[in-house]
C-alpha cells in the first residue's frame, strides 16, 4: 500500500512545549511528511523534509524527530500503520548517530546509554537527570547559563551599585573551582535567591534586608554556589522538561536541549530542590565558608533570621523553595560545633562595602507587635 496525500493517519505529536501529545494527522509525500494538528485552533498542514528528520527506536516504538533541533517529534508504535514506511523514508545514514557515538566513545557510553534508556522507560524519567547531567560538558552548561541569565532577568531591575558592593565583599571569597560564579543583586522586595546552571547567582534585595551580619551573605552564597557546583540546578531543570529531550543529550545535540532549557528558564526562579539536595547545599556551603575562614555559624544565623522574619512579609519565594526546617537548623549547628576554629573577620574594604550594602537595604522594622 502506498500512502499519498489523500491518506491521513492519526499519530501522537509532541510539539516541544506541551508535555502531553497532540493528536495530529500525518501524510507522507515523496520527500517530505506533513502534519495537521487537529487540536490547534487553526489547523494547517506543516511540512517536514525527510532529510531533516531522524528517528530513534526504543523498544516497541520510534521517536521521529521532525527538526534537527529535536524540539518536536512523533511517537510511532511498531504496530502503527505508518511505522515501516515512515522509517524507510528517513535514510539509515541519519540514524547511524548511535554507531558513530559508539565508535567515538566506546563501550562505557554504550552502557550509559542502555542504563539511561532502561531508566527512561522503566523507572521513569525523573531518575534519569542525575545520570545524564554527566553527559553535558561544563562549557556547554556555562554557555546556557549565560542565556538563562539574559532571558530570566529581562524583566528585572539589576541594582548595579549593590551588585558592585557584593562583588567587593566577596572579592576574596572563593566559591567554585569549576564555574565562574557571578552574583547579581536584583531590586525586588521578594525574599529570594537562586542559582543558575553554569555560575550565575541572583539575590533579591529582599533577602539582603533580612541579614544582620556579612557571614549570612557568605552562607547564602555558599549554599547557592553548591547548587551550581553540584549541578543541582541543571538536574532540576532536566527533571522538569519532558523525557524526550533527554534523548537529545545522547545524540550530542546540545543545541536542541539548550534551546529547550532556555525556553523553560522561568523554572529557575521558583525551583524547589529535594530535601537531600538542600541538605547537601547547606553542608557543602558551610565547607566553602570554612575553606574561606568564614565562621560556618553564619549558616544557622541566616536560617534563623529567615525563619524569624517569615511572618513579617508575604513575599517568601525563597522559603517556598528552601523551607527552613528544624533539621536544617540543627544540622548546621552541629556542623559549626564540629568545626570550631579561628575565623577571619572582614578586611576594612570589605567591611566598608558591607556597611554600604546594608545602608541600601536595611532591615525592615518588624511588623510584629
Ligand atoms: Zn537551596
Q: What does this molecule look like?
A:
- With 369 residues, the chain is of the alpha+beta class.
- It folds into three domains: 9-90, PH-domain like (Roll); 97-127, no CATH class; 138-360, no CATH class.
- The protein has 15 helices and ten strands.
- The chain has helices spanning 83-89, 97-123, 129-132, 138-152, 160-169, 205-209, 214-229, 232-240, 244-250, 254-263, 275-291, 297-309, 317-321, 326-338, 348-360, and strands at 9-14, 22-28, 32-37, 45-49, 54-58, 61-65, 73-77, 182-186, 193-195, 200-204.
- The strands form two sheets. A seven-stranded antiparallel β-sheet has the order 4-3-2-1-7-6-5, with helices on one face. Strands 8-10-9 form a three-stranded mixed β-sheet, sandwiched between helices.
- The relative contact order is 0.10.
- Residues 92-98 have low confidence and may be disordered.
- It binds zinc ion (ZN).
Listed once per kind, the bound small molecules are: zinc ion
Report the total helices: 15
Radius of gyration: 25 Å
Structural class of the secondary elements? alpha+beta
Mean pLDDT: 80
For the largest beta-sheet, the strand count, sense and barrel status come to: 7 strands, antiparallel
Taking the alpha carbons of the first and last residues, their distance comes to 81 Å
The share of residues in helices is 40-55%
Count of the separate structural domains = 3
Got a strand count? 10
Which percent range describes the beta-strand content? Answer: 5-15%
Element pattern in H and E: EEEEEEEHHHHHEEEHHHHHHHHHH
Q: Outline, from the CA principal axes?
A: elongated
Uncertain segments are 92-98
- Placed side by side, the strands forming the largest sheet appear as 4-3-2-1-7-6-5
Amino acid at each position: 500500500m502506498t500512502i499519498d496525500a489523500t491518506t491521513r493517519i492519526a499519530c501522537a505529536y509532541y510539539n516541544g512545549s506541551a508535555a502531553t501529545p497532540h493528536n495530529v494527522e500525518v501524510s507522507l509525500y515523496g520527500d517530505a511528511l506533513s502534519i495537521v494538528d487537529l487540536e490547534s485552533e487553526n489547523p494547517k498542514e506543516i511540512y517536514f523534509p525527510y532529510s531533516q528528520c531522524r528517528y530513534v527506536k526504543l523498544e516497541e516504538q520510534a521517536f521521529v524527530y521532525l527538526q534537527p533541533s529535536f524540539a518536536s517529534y512523533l511517537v510511532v508504535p511498531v504496530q502503527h500503520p505508518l511505522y515501516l514506511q515512515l522509517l524507510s523514508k528517513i535514510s539509515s545514514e541519519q540514524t547511524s548517530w548511535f554507531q558513530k557515538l559508539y565508535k567515538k566513545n566506546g563501550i562505557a557510553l554504550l552502557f550509559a546509554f542502555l542504563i539511561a534508556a532502561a531508566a527512561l522507560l522503566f523507572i521513569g524519567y525523573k531518575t534519569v537527570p542525575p545520570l545524564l547531567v554527566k553527559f553535558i560538558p561544563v562549557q556547554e552548561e556555562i554557555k546556557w547559563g549565560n542565556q538563562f541569565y539574559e532571558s530570566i532577568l529581562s524583566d528585572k531591575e539589576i541594582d548595579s551599585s549593590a551588585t558592585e558592593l557584593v562583588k567587593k565583599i566577596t572579592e576574596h571569597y572563593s566559591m567554585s573551582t569549576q564555574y565562574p560564579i557571578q552574583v547579581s543583586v536584583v531590586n525586588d522586595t521578594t525574599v529570594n535567591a537562586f542559582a543558575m546552571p553554569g555560575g550565575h547567582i541572583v539575590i533579591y534585595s529582599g533577602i539582603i534586608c533580612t541579614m544582620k551580619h556579612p557571614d549570612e551573605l557568605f552562607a547564602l552564597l555558599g549554599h547557592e554556589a553548591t547548587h551550581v557546583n553540584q549541578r543541582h540546578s541543571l538536574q532540576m531543570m532536566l527533571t522538569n522538561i519532558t523525557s524526550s529531550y533527554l534523548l537529545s543529550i545522547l545524540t550530542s545535540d546540545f543545541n536542541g536541549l539548550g534551546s529547550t532549557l532556555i525556553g523553560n528558564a522561568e523554572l529557575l526562579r521558583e525551583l524547589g530542590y529535594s530535601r537531600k539536595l538542600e541538605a547537601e547545599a547547606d553542608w557543602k556551603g558551610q565547607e566553602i565558608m570554612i575553606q574561606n575562614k568564614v565562621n560556618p555559624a553564619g549558616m544557622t544565623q541566616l536560617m534563623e533570621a529567615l525563619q524569624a522574619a517569615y511572618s513579617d512579609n508575604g513575599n517568601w519565594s525563597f522559603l517556598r523553595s528552601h523551607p527552613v526546617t528544624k533539621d536544617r537548623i540543627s544540622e548546621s549547628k552541629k556542623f559549626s560545633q564540629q568545626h570550631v576554629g579561628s575565623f577571619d573577620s572582614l578586611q576594612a574594604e570589605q567591611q566598608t562595602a558591607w556597611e554600604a550594602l546594608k545602608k541600601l537595604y536595611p532591615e525592615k522594622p518588624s511588623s510584629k507587635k
